[in-house]
Amino acid sequence: MSDFSGIWVPLITPFADGAVDHAALRALVRRYADAGIAGLVALGTTGEPAALDAAEQDAVLATILDVAHAAAHHAPAARALPVLVGVSGNHTASMRERIGQLNPLPIAGVLIAAPYYIRPSQAGIVGHFTALADASDKPVVLYDIPYRTGVRLELDTLLTLAAHPRIRAVKDCAGSLDTTLALIRDGRLQVLAGDDMAIFNTLCLGGSGAIAASAHLRPERFVALYRALAEGQLAEGRRIFHALTPLIQAAFDEPNPGPVKSLLAAQGLIRDELRMPMTRASDTLAARLKMLDGPDEIVQDTERSA
């Protein structure tokens, strides 16, 4: 049984002089393993997969899997770090072929959004996801993000898809409290917050975790937030979330992953490079992100209370 609980980081793709920087990518995977995150998402929206050709996508995934499985020596649970793989598109047959290529790989599952741009009917969406789940040997995580796809996965559609034995979770970015709560109460799909500002609410309602781009920046704090709420420490979880809120908000003031890459570059972990049409964060936002990336208040507060 696959478990998608906890904080998952949708990895950026670092570049250096226009090429994928595999050394920086390896270092990032090790960093997040050491931080205690639950898993990684490779080739999700934050990873700029639309700007990578097929060979680059395969190479990025190979690097992530190589280090994630070696991370068993670094991760607190002494296990390989699970990796979800983003599969996007609006041509069902081509996506089935891609899933077939991924089936032999040691991945935790595939993350699939609704077909973008063409705005199919809900019946078409059910048929699309059913065909892809039928083709997959691994668990499927639905990605409900109408902001990008132009079409929402309605609650009835999600509940219909929940009956498929390989559809196991949903990355919830639709912004509907009613849908989030209904899915949690139904219990068949693990609900992962996909809107970073909804992490606290989702976890308090009984959601399983989050796939959070802003967790690139302070992964230990996000892990501490999840653990506090999982252990019923509401006041502590609220305090951590309130401390994270300005950074989360700033991370999405401009198109993702520009702000995340800007601060990772300021931390010396990557170069501040994206591929067109994505652009770097503005100088104003970069300066604000650096200001927000101050000393770890969580550690300081813990030390004061010791």
From TrEMBL:
Entry-linked CDD domains: DHDPS
Reactions it catalyzes: L-aspartate 4-semialdehyde + pyruvate = (2S,4S)-4-hydroxy-2,3,4,5-tetrahydrodipicolinate + H2O + H(+)
Pathway terms, separated by semicolons: Amino-acid biosynthesis; L-lysine biosynthesis via DAP pathway; (S)-tetrahydrodipicolinate from L-aspartate: step 3/4
This protein's encoding gene: dapA
Subunit comment: Homotetramer; dimer of dimers.
GO MF term list: 4-hydroxy-tetrahydrodipicolinate synthase activity
Leader sequence segment: none
One GO biological process term: lysine biosynthetic process via diaminopimelate
Keywords, sorted A to Z: Amino-acid biosynthesis, Cytoplasm, Diaminopimelate biosynthesis, Lyase, Lysine biosynthesis, Schiff base
Residues involved in pyruvate binding: T46, I211
PANTHER family: 4-HYDROXY-2-OXOGLUTARATE ALDOLASE, MITOCHONDRIAL, DIHYDRODIPICOLINATE SYNTHASE
One annotated Gene Ontology cellular component of this protein: cytoplasm
Enzyme Commission code: 4.3.3.7
Identification of the protein by name: 4-hydroxy-tetrahydrodipicolinate synthase
Cited function: Catalyzes the condensation of (S)-aspartate-beta-semialdehyde [(S)-ASA] and pyruvate to 4-hydroxy-tetrahydrodipicolinate (HTPA).
Site (Part of a proton relay during catalysis): T45, Y117
